[in-house]
Amino acid sequence: MKISYFPGCTLKTTAKNFEESALASLSFLGIDVVELPRWNCCGTVYSLTDDDLMHQIAPVRNLIRVKEQKDTRVVTLCSMCYNTLKRANNLVKEDEEKLNKLNDFMYRENVKYDGKVEVLHLLEVLKNEVGFSEIAKKVKRSLKGLRVANYYGCLLLRPPEVGLDDPEHPTILNDLLHSLGAEVIDYPYETECCGSYHTVVNVDLVVERAYDILNSAISQGAEAVVLSCPLCNFNLDNRQKEIKKKFPDFKGIPVFYFTQLLALSLGLDERVCRFELNFVNPYPLLKSKHLITGA
Amino acid sequence: MRMKISIKNVKNKFLDKLRELSGENIYACYQCGKCSAGCPSLSEMDISPSEIIHLIKLGQEEEVLNSKTIWICASCFTCVTRCPKGVDLTKIMEALRQITLRKNVDHVNLSSIPKKALSQFPQIALISSFRKFTA
User: Fold this and answer.
1) What is the ipTM of this complex?
2) Residues forming CATH 1.20.1050.140 domain(s) in chain A
């Protein structure tokens, strides 16, 4: 199976652990992803004003790249890219006048966008194209005994017309982690915002948010947090340093991209998971569960 | 604190601008409070989301535009997911921010961010914060 792939800027830099583990897993599962040539930043987040078309150019241009590859579907891993691309796509599918204006503005492109590309998230592809029960059959290192708290965040699920699962009670990550053998912990903060872009100038807001989320997971017995967004990852993983400063009794917890655990459970070489890029050291936990062998 | 409520400020250019930018009908709001109840940033706000809508209906432009609320909003979309009347509060918040931003008044200053921090952020953090907080 072949499908176009939009990485987005962060996956090529601070989130290489997300990309490499994802690409290795996809290759193992027989899905051939073709990175879009000349892709540009999707321009996250989706612009919410009705009169603004300038900010829709970046995402729509990426959809033109999909058409240039003679494809009708594109998969992305980053929740923010997924939300931005999908919302921009929905906008131009529903508003022909805006689509025409955008195409006219991008007159130098060889191909006009026609609204016929489908934007998918990797979780949808794993669920619908591969199937979680098929993935379960291919598991070589079961995550049995590992208690995970799945953190969905905002942009994967909301607003409802764009979200890939129920915004109040999502199950897709839970189902995936179950198929890998993990025990999924229920806790009330799985869809609660991490503070997002406030991390740039209002660190305290993010520290408060992240503390509530992580502490809730820890108090319910989670040993690891699993997520899909590089910004949530920064706020929940890297910001643990600031959380410990403000809340000295905070225990800390390793945070993983779901693809890192997927790659590990499929029996792939742990080096594709790039665990060294995770801020909170995951090695003690992984060793205690006999999921990695090395030192 | 005195609040002037007259037909002059209840039907004015501020409301027209808001409608033009957001496309939303604030009069559909019947103050159920689900948006405020679900807002994860409520504790940091000075005026709750549902109170903002009510103040808009009363034409209180200055109070709304000077609030901390519209800048504390993290665009998490919980409010629009839960509104029983289909009012898209996220678009209203964006319109309120844009009214100030489009006067070329940025809410975040790139030079105030320490260089070391800049290199550690995932790009999406910077891109999205500039999208939301700069003109």
Assistant:
1) 0.92
2) 2-123
